[in-house]
Design goal:
heterodimer; A: 272 residues; MetI-like fold; 13 helices; globular; B: alpha+beta; six-stranded mixed β-sheet; five-stranded antiparallel β-sheet; 8 helices; 24% helix; binds adenosine-5'-triphosphate; binds magnesium ion
Chain lengths: 272, 352
Amino acid sequence: MDQNQRAPLRQRLVSWLILLLGGLYFFVPLIATIDFSLRARKGVLSVLAYQRVLSDPRFASAFTFSLEMALLTVVVGVILVVPTAYWIRLRLPQLRPVVEFVTLMPFVVPAIVLVFGLIRVFSRPPLLLTNSFTGTQILLVAGYVVLVLPYLYRAVDTGLQAIDIRTLTEAAQSLGAGWWVIITQIIFPNLRSAILSGAFLTITIVMGELTMASFLVGLKAFGPYMSQVGQNRAYEGAALAVISFALTWAFTMLFQFVGRRALGGDQAFGAR
Amino acid sequence: MAYLSIRNLSKRFGQTLAVRDFNLEVERGEFVSFLGPSGCGKTTTLRMIAGFEIPTSGNIILDGADITFLPPNRRHIGMVFQSYALFPNLTVADNIAFGLKVAKRPPEEIRKTVGEMLDLIRLSGFENRYPYQLSGGQQQRVALARALAIHPRVLLLDEPLSALDAKIRVELRAEIRRIQQTLGITAIYVTHDQEEALSLSDRVVVMYEGKIEQVGTPFEVYNYPQTRFVASFIGQLNLIPVIVEDPQHGLVRFGNFLFQVDPAPHLNRGQAVTLALRPEEMNLGRVEGRNHVEGRVLDVMFLGAIVRVRVDLQGREVLADLFNERQLALPRPGDQVIINFPPHACWIISEG
Ligand SMILES: Nc1ncnc2c1ncn2[C@@H]1O[C@H](COP(=O)(O)OP(=O)(O)OP(=O)(O)O)[C@@H](O)[C@H]1O
Ligand SMILES: [Mg+2]
């Protein structure tokens, strides 16, 4: 009797221990960073570093800039990936390995190579884009779309796997629906959570991205700005890291909340 | 010309010929079932009518127009799937309204039709539920209402009941037939369940390996099967090897027993043929004017309305179905019994 109960207890202890270790791994650096960021004034805890960061106008502008880029990346990426992944599952399943391989390119080709390639191709006619700010923004979003492809494609593809898209498509067709209606009213709403999780990953990646942003827009983007502050001023760098962490989380929550309503499909069919 | 006419329809998938030279005429308001074993091409034929598969050859003509190559969303043909296929993001009402909204019907008409459909499937009050909040049977009724809401020219159903449990299956079966007759809709119903096909349909199309074996009323295909496959696929069949004694007078011999059957002048004296008859034609005891044969009871299965007795006739097993009665003296395994059957109950299979 006793021994029977001891085994599960030990198992439970082990589980807790693993959880604890995982938590430490995640929280210790975070707490250390927070602690460090509060020591800008010698000997006392203060929010001086935060005040300095927040009063720097470049902070707000870099953050909003990167956020805009992130949102554009989500929009472009989703418009590109959802119909593609859907069509491949529906009509071209034999192409799936190929497409999966293509989406993995960012893991094979480093961002630095990608951005140099982009700059080389688009810095001379007929596709001159690097000479204007809008042009570089377009390049940046394009580069980001490639960069987040593995995450976005996988999230969407997994979402498609969870619903019987073939039968749902046929059901909609037999009711008279064309492709536009099927994709916007059936496929998108049913991929809501998959798209949201892909969007979440996209935003986090874009917000912290350094390489492409440095080469294309420099300190205007959040990643390069954060890296520069971190190099020059240690306390402010730490404060910035904490702020960006908090903002990313807050923003993600907000996005989940808004996105759930916008993509819910209830608007389009407001029967309640 | 018939309302729906399918002519020389074939479909090839690589090496497999899934449907071969399928010909069928369906009248308006008729309920037709496709019945056959797994892989015989029922679904493929249905999907060609729906427009989800392009035929390799042949034509489909609906209401005078050739629709063979018309895209599915322009055929105005309703479809009910085995897996229900309700849109998970839409409520019951929105699922039913989907086709009408796509067709841009006025909101007033949509509301009215949705209400009528909910009444028809007896699910009023469920309009704001989501599919995951319904039982399988309820989901399938909603799927039926969704397909019917657009007033389709033909309703196609691909094994709509096979994901449900037995009791719901029988209930919903009656419901489908009732609704089909109320609306006078033309329906094609795919199933591999013969009881379903026989009980529901005006006509049954029995298929085997991509070909039509027989088309007929349930009574015809059950009582007058035209091929050996139909005979053995539908219902139980007893097969008894006999020797032709007198083709003109329909006399055949099984061991020491002489049977009177229908005259078969095309047969030859001494030819080995097979006698086929249904278990319900066989009874126990001696009855004047019937054929008789002796056998030994192997076992007795009590099925409620029917008692199924398995009998050994000199090494050949046959089944005799007796109607249950309270006075019935059940035979026991090992008993020697006499089996009788009427002369006109059997038909002769001459090959092999
Ligand atoms: N898309 C396809 N590609 C290749 N072969 C197919 C395809 N669809 C069906 N087949 C083949 O065609 C034949 C008929 O299939 P079908 O689905 O019509 O059978 P069925 O009568 O509906 O069987 P079941 O009762 O199991 O549903 C089968 O041999 C099947 O393997
Ligand atoms: Mg099938």
